[in-house]
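=== RUN LOG ===
request id: a7f3
mode: sequence -> structure
chains: 1
length: 928
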Amino acid sequence: MNVLITADIHLGIYSDFNYKNNSRLDQFEKLADRLIELGKENNCEECWILGDFLRVPNCGSRVEHRLKLFIKSLCLNFKEVKYILGQHDLNAKSNNYDIYDTIVSVPDFSNFVYMDKRIFLPKDSNHIFAFMNWRPDQDLSWLPYDKVDVLLGHYTKSSLFGQDIDETRFDLMIHGDIHNDQVLGKFVSVGNPIQHDFSSQSEGTCVLLNTDTLEWKHIKVDPDHSRFLRLYYTDNPNLEGFTDELSYYFYKPKLVKSVEVTEVDFGWDDINDLIDQVVKSKNLESVHNEIITNGFDSVSIDFNIKLISLDIKGYRSVTDFHIDFKDRDRIVLLGSNGSGKSSILHALKAVFEQNKYAQYEKSDLCDEQLIQLKFIYQNQLVEITKGDQIKLVVDGETKEFNSQRDFNNNLIDQFPFINYLDIFFINAGSSNLSNQLDSERRIELISRFYRLDNLQTWSDLAFNRYQEELEKINGIRDDYNKLVGVIEHITNRLNELTEIDIDKKSELEDKLQGYLDLRIKYDNYHDWKLKYDSICSRKSEVESSLSRNKAKLVINPEEVNARLEEVRTQSIKLRELLKSSTERANRFKELNKLLDKLAKEGAEINKKLDQLRSSTCPECGASLSESKQNELVTKYEDQLVNMRTNWTSISEQLAEYTKEEKSNRYFITLLNNIENRIKDNKDEEMLLSNKVNSYSIAVSEVDNLTERLQSITKELSELESNKPEEIKLPLNLNDLEIEVRSELTKISDKERELKSKDENQAKLDELESNINSITEVAERYLNYSKLMGTSGEVIEQLLKLLCTKFSTNEIKYEVNSGVFRGKRFVELNTYFKVRKKWRLYETCSDGQKQLCDLDFLNKLFSSNIGFLVLDEYFRHLDDINYPKCMELLNEMNVNTILISTHDPNITTYTKRVLLQLDELGRTIYSIQ
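=== RESULT ===
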C-alpha cells in the first residue's frame, strides 16, 4: 500500500506577504487539493499527517473553519487519514495531555483517525508501524514490541542537537517539525508542504511511502512553482516586493566582516552559524532548541509603504490642501512662520496616531475637518480618513468598526509600522537624535530594520520561561515554608513529650494484652452459652416437628394408589363416553334438521308443479308454452326424486336410533350425567393425590428431621465437651485499661511525631533539591535571554559586523560592552573625524551631530522605507556639512521625504510646496 505523508502544515492567518487580502490563508484550500492530486498520482490509499496542522493552537474561528474544510477534503478523497499532533497544535506543552487540548480533534469524520501511541499493522504486510505525538520527552517505553520497523512522529532533530530518543526501538523514523527535507541517518524529515517564512524550505515536500517494501522518497508539492507563494532574500533594495503573485523578494543587506585588512561578504547563513556557535560555547543548545522549536518566529515589519496622495481640510490654518506623491519624491515645504508647513506635517502624522486633541485642531475657517491619506502597502491600496469622520478602505472595501477605539487598534494591527512613527517624524526639537534614541533604542531599531527580530523574540520567550520557572519555585517555596512550619510544630510537640519513655511500650502492651485476654475469656464463655442455648432451642423445635410429621403416616399408601388408578381409569372411560355421546347427539340433531329442510323444499316444489299444471310460470306468473311447461315439470319432478332419495337415506340413519334416544331430553340428560360422574371422579382423584403427596412429604420430612436431630445432638455433645472456663471480670477493669491505653497513646503520639518529622524532613530535602534543580533551569533560561537580548553577546557580535559596514572615512561606529553595577551592557557609539582625529559623538558640535544622526538613519534604513518627515531640522548645519546632509537624504532608501524649512536655497528636492497665509489667515499653496 502506498501512503502520502505530510506534516507542518501550519494553517493560519498570515498578515504579511499577502498579494491580496487573505491570499495566504486561501493557499491551504489549494494545498488540500494538491495533496489529493499527489495521492491519486501515486496511487495512495491513505494520507498520514505528522503534526502541526496549525500555526498557533488558539487560532480563531476563521482558521478553525478552514481547518475543518481542509480535513474534510482529505477525508473525502482518501480511504483513511491518520494523524498525530505537534506542539503548535497543543495548548499544553507537557508530556501529559489529552485530545481535548487541541482544536484539531473537533472535526468528527469516521476515517479521521487519531494515532498517538498506537500501532498499525497493514494488511498483507509484515512490517510494524508506530505513531506518537510530539512531547518534550520522546519516551518509547509504551511500545509493545522490542523494535518497530517505522516510527512516525513529530520530533526535533538537527545536525547540531536533537531530542533524546531510544534509537534501538526502530529501524526508520519519519517525522515532522523540521521545516526541510533533511535525512540524518535513520531520521527522515517530511519537510513543510508550503513555505511559511524564511525559516522553512521554499520548495515544499511530502514523503511517499510503500508499507509493503518500506521504500520511501521525497516528492515536491509545487515543482513548477505555479501554486504557492515563495519568499526570497535579495541584497538589492530595489527588488523588494512582489514580482508576481507567487514570488516575494525580501531585502536583507549584505554584511561584511573584517579579516585583518580584507573585507569579505558575510551572508545570513553565517549569522545563523554565529548564533549556533555562541549558543554552543555557552552550553545552551537545549534551551535554544526548545525556544526555536516551541516558540513562534516574530513577524518582520514591512516599512515599505508608498504614499499616493494627501488631502487636508479644516486642520489649523489649512482649509484645502492636496498633493500627489511619486516614488523617490523629495518634497520641500517653504514658507514663513505660521504659513502651515508644520500643520501639513502634523496632519499627516495624525492620520496614523491616536490624537485626543484633534478636535481642538479643527480650523475656525472651515466647516469640516478631513484628513485623507492614500498609500500602497503590501500590494494593497489603502485609504485612511480622519477628522469629522473616520474610515478605512482597503482595495475598495470599506472596513466596519464598532468604535473609534476599535478603528485605532485595527490600524496598529494592520499597519505595524505605526509603532515606529518617532523614526519617521523628526521635528526641530530633535537636533540631537540621540536624546530621542539612546543606545538601547538604536540597537533595538537596528534589530528591527535589519530583520534580526527573532533574537529579541527568543530573548523574550526565554525570559517568560525564566519567570515561569520562578513561579514554580515560588510555589515550591510556599510548600517548603509550610513544611518548615510543620517541622517546627512537630519539634515543639516532641519537647512536650520528652518525659514519655518509649522503651516502656512493650511492658504496657503486655499488661494491656492481659486485660484483653480476660475479656476474651469472658466473651468466649458468654458466646459459648449463647450458642449452647440456641442449639438446645433448635433441638426442641426439630423434635416437635418430627412428632407432627410422624402423625401423618396413618394411611395405607398401596390401597390409596390402587384406588387412585381405578378412579383415573374410570375418568378416561367417562371422557371417551362423553365424546362419543356428544357426537351421536349432534348427528341426531343434524339429521332432523335435514328432514325438516327437505320437507319444506318438497312442499315448495309441489306448489310450483300445481302452478305449472295450469300453464302458469311459478316464477313470474306468465303463461307458458307446452314445451317450456314440460321442461319445467321434468326439472321439478327430478328434484322431487332426488329429495325422496335423500329423505329415504336420512330416515334409514334415524332408524338406527332407539326410541329412548328419540325422546326430547334423552341426550341432554345423558350428557349431564356423564359430566357429573367425570367431576365426581376428578374430585376423588384430587383427594387421593393429596393423600399420597402428603404421605410422601411426611416420609421425607421424617427422614430429614431425624437426620437433623442426630446432627444437632452430636453438635450439642461436642459443644458440651468444649465448654470454656466461666470468668468473672474485675470491677475496675475499665479503669485499668484506660490508664494503660493512655500511656500507650502518648507513646504512639511520640512515635508518630518522630516518624512525621523524618518524613517531612525527607520532603523538605526533596523540595530543596527541586528548588535547586528548577533554579538551575531558570538560570539557563535567564542566561539565554541575556545572550539573545539587546545587551547580549549575540547582538554584540552582529553589531560589530554591522559597524564594519556602517563605518566610513568620516563617521565611524564602534560597539563597547562590559558590566556596570552587575549588569551587562552593549553600547553603539558614533565617532566623527575632525582633523584626522576621531571625536566621540557626545563631544561633537550640533551640526556634526546632525550629520551623524542622518548618517545613522541612512544606515538604519537598510530596506525601503515609506517616508521621512524633517520639520525645521537643518538649522544647525554649516556650509560644509549642509551639502553632506543633502547627499545623505538623496541616498536614503526612503520613498518620500518631506522637509519643512525656511531656507529658500535648498537644492535637494523634486517638488517645492510654497505656502503663505491669505488675508483671512488661510493657508494657500502652490506646487512647483
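=== NOTES ===
Residues 255-266 have pLDDT under 50 and may be disordered.
The chain has five domains: 2-231, 237-294, 305-451+790-927, 463-496+751-784, 501-729.
=== END ===
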